[in-house]
Amino acid sequence: MKAVEIICRQCGADTLLNREAVYDGFTRTGERLICSGCGFEYASEEDVPFKVQQASPQVFTDADRSTKIEVFDEGENQRLCRYCANYIVNPFTQFCALRKKEVQATDTCENFSECGGLDVNPALGDNVPLTRTPL
Ligand SMILES: [Zn+2]
């Protein structure tokens, strides 16, 4: 049974409400609502002078929450030749189609061209990985 605080209308005490189940034979027919201080019985739940619970004070506000820390800067990788549309890899070399010269995957380039970050060869369709050497 949960303790429910009341301010009894009869005795005026700051006390607890007793709930006693009422049975008719084996059938529970109701509940008696009784002041634990004076024994006054309340007619119904609506009749009980429940003690109004103070709303617990808000200790923390949104302003106290630390701002989300981004551990990885996504922009960091975005200009690497590896992610450039002009980056071509074959078993012998890594090549920039734009500058017509050999490059490293980790090179950066001012002519970087976004390829959407997809590791698929559009000529061969989806789900066919390019033959890119792992970094
Ligand atoms: Zn009472």
List keywords for this structure.
135 residues, mainly beta, 2 domains, 3-stranded antiparallel beta sheet, 7 strands, 0% helix, rod-shaped, binds zinc ion
Number of DSSP strands? 7
Determine the N-to-C terminus distance.
Answer: 65 Å
Radius of gyration: 37 Å
Overall morphology: rod-shaped
Number of helices: 0
Question: What would you call the structural class?
Answer: mainly beta
Share of helix, binned:
under 10%
**Small molecules bound:** zinc ion
Query: Please, how many domains?
Result: 2
Overall mean pLDDT score? 79
Spatial order of the strands in the main sheet?
A: 1-2-3-4
Instruction: Provide the low-confidence segments as ranges.
Output: 124-128
The major β-sheet equals:
4 strands, antiparallel
Order of helical and strand elements: EEEEEEE
Strand content: 25-35%
Characterize the structure shown.
The protein is mainly β. It folds into 2 domains: 5-47, no CATH class; 76-134, no CATH class. It contains no helices and 7 strands. Strand 1 and strand 2 form a beta hairpin. Bound molecules: zinc ion. Zinc ion binds at residues 8, 10-11, 13, 35, 37-38, 40.
How would you summarize this macromolecular structure in one to three sentences?
The protein is mainly β and 135 residues long.
Topology:
Elements: E1 4-7, E2 14-24, E3 27-35, E4 41-42, E5 87-89, E6 94-96, E7 101-102
Antiparallel strand pairs: 1-2, 2-3, 3-4, 5-6, 6-7
The structure holds zinc ion.
